[in-house]
Amino acid sequence: EIVVAVWVGFDKGRAHGLSGATAALPTWARIVAGSGTAGGLFRGTDRLVQVEVCAATGLPPGPESSVIKIAWSQLGARIPEVAVDVLGMAGLEGPWGLDLLHGRSLPIAGGTTEVNRNIVGERVLGLPREPRVS
Question: From first to last of its 134 residues, what are the pLDDT tens digits of the chain?
Fold first, then answer.
């Protein structure tokens, strides 16, 4: 068996400002393709584990990440709306039109906004849990 981990961007307690797509992904792609340190011996398996870490702390993400998800999904949905409001119908013909459509999916992708609001309320703010329907 081969164990592979690609860790880039948080060394000696400080962040390097690198994203996984620009730093770790090329290394991982070389390993999977067989040109990396695994020497082509990598075989995919159902036991492959992916672990997310917080870029700021290097630790697994906590419930606070739901706050970020809510903010980004709302911002990502609102920016194209404003652009089309400013540009009028002509804004629908360019990239803003596609961004407007894509923006509608953001509050659902990665967990619905309602679920993330419950996580923030219960785990971050310490509010009582919502009643469960049985």
Answer: 455 666 665 566 666 666 666 777 777 777 666 644 445 555 556 666 666 777 777 777 788 788 888 888 888 889 999 999 999 998 898 888 888 988 888 888 767 888 888 988 998 899 998 888 87
What gap in Å lies between CA 80 and CA 93, rounded to an integer?
12
Per-residue CA distances from 38 to 2, 32, 50, 70 (Å): 8, 8, 18, 39
Q: Residue 5: which of 51, 57, 61, 39 has the closest Cα? A: 51
Cβ atoms of 106 and 73 closer than 8 Å: yes
Q: What span, in angstroms and rounded, lies between the C-alpha atoms of 78 and 86?
A: 12
